Amino acid sequence: MTDDPAATEPARTIARERLLSGQAWDDFCDTLKVAGRHIAQVEGPLSDLDRAEWYRFMTRLARSSMERLLENAEPTRPRLRDMVWRQSINVQTVDQDHLMCQFDAARDYRITGTRGTIPYFVMAVLTCPAPAVAGAEDWATQGAAGLARFDPANLKTTGFLHSGQLRVEADGTFAIVLSQNDPGPGHNWLRLLPESNSILIRTVWGDRVTETAPAFTITRMDGAAPEPVTPELIADGLAWTAQAVLGYAELVRNWWQGSQGNFAARLNRLDYSRAQYLSNGGVPDRHVAFGGWEKGLDEALVLEFTPPPCEYWNFQLCNIWQENLDTFEDGNGWINNRRHVAEADGTVRVIIAERDPGLGGNWIDSYGHERGIWGLRFVQTPATAPVRLWRLPLAELAARGPAALDPAAMVRTGAFID
């Protein structure tokens, strides 16, 4: 993933030799081991369920990273591929699909497609810390310290374009040029920077049954013919794949109890932070509040907020590792602007508990979890919503109903912290 093959030829030769000798494979396997053991760096209480989901999370990261960074990272065959099934990261909403493609910023690309009928999509060009030839060195021995130089999980947005900004033809088709240089008037243009190395397309669904997804195809504008893979390309892909798993292992630890969130120290809050959201591939078209939550299995959390007018909003419950709970397959675990129950005054009440206390509103099953991450997002609006929050015994809530929500015990949250 470099724009100067001559300058990197010595490193490419090393990468080739490492693949042919098996060293690149050994380092790939060893880096995965380092990532799995990173759970030891997570301090504080972890249940057996938390630990079981951690190791499943590692397999999901490995599967997703292989698809994105090895299987679909051939320079002459750019492909937009969806995230693999059931893999989510950074509190990814169930109502969004993520299409990603690695590319070489030295090239110009064209994305062609059809608009579809979903309400909204947004494209973000990304960069991350990476050496020119990652496959030329061992990463496992560097551990988490190596992420300072090479971290495929540390994504920063360098440019974005949303569906409302596109010029779409009468037949619903469009074309977008991705390049460092402006293609001129009459073109949809998404600018690349020299350090750009991937694109992420978020498609936002309102109703997956009745709506049609947009279609996207990405091609190199120089018309380069596909080429066979090379040892150095596979060495690079193995390094990117394993380092991505380690990077995300550190990312979720850092959000939970490190410098990039430290939610474990500020439990049962939802704080809006532009810096937090934009720190990992976010786009500035939305407001997102993240936080950590905690309650006993015999307790409930109740949240109330009034959504502002916007293109889309959602609230979702995740585990410590920022994954949607398994109940999302059953239609539980999240609500949005189209699937929720509101009070007469427009207030949305969310009840998080092991069973439905019969309070009405929107019950979300905590599904055996005692702690995790949650998120509240509003897309295409300058406004946000403050949140009222209670933590109380589930039996009391079931017995007394709304009367159990004592104003004196309420926590006010949902403010900007930066």
From TrEMBL:
Every DUF1214 domain range: 164-201
Naturally occurring in which organism (per UniProt): Novosphingobium aerophilum
Name under which the protein is recorded: DUF1214 domain-containing protein
